[in-house]
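Case study 2.
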Amino acid sequence: MARSPSGDSMVDRVVRVLEAFDPDTPVLTVSALAARAGLPLSTTSRLVDQLVGHGLLGRDSARRVRIGVRMWELASRASPTLGLRSAAMPFLEDLHAVVGHHVQLGVLEQREVLFVERLSAPGAVINLTQIAGRLPLHASSGGLILLAHAPSDLQEAVLAGPLRGYTDRTITDARTLRRTLAQVRTQGFVHCPGHIHPDAAGVAVPVRDRSDAVVAALAVVVPNDDRALGTVPLLRAMARGIQASIGPIEWN
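Prediction:
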């Protein structure tokens, strides 16, 4: 495979270009894309032209670059979460109808929670998560559920830090985090008042497959008040419904 003078292969450079986009920066100029990818402008421009030709990237009327529809099509077709999302959606919709704020489904992806679905509404409490967005495992309710049931080596890696703080309520101490993970496993839910934003509380429960393995976290983000914990019974009921509906999931 052809390599650049820096030793990167063509695939390496394409991946760096694609990974330069994130939920907060879905559109970039070619120069900004080159800077984020750490590639020369001429190399980036050439790769963008080729990827646009294949529909993997697209350009808007100002010649800015974005992820192409063809990339979305391929990613959706290959996603191992497709069956999970299909099974979960009716229950997410029912949960959202009752809660009226944010409902989200997250899966473990390396040291982060990846949000594969989210339902919201106008006027809902502030929420920093987005579909295809990520948060550190220690910081959010869904992340804590997934971390509590993750392999021990991953838990120890996260506990070793650093643990980023979003507010003064975010867990940033390893001892507190270890104790919280034990509580999550014991009580079967987690309540995170003000961990990401002072005005919002996250409440989450595990979603299990038919073999009883935890495959996702089902969470709500609601106002940070004394009613947040009241969502736990409903979350548990919806998680059981997803478990009964879920088929085999093939994770990478």
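The chain has a mean pLDDT of 90.
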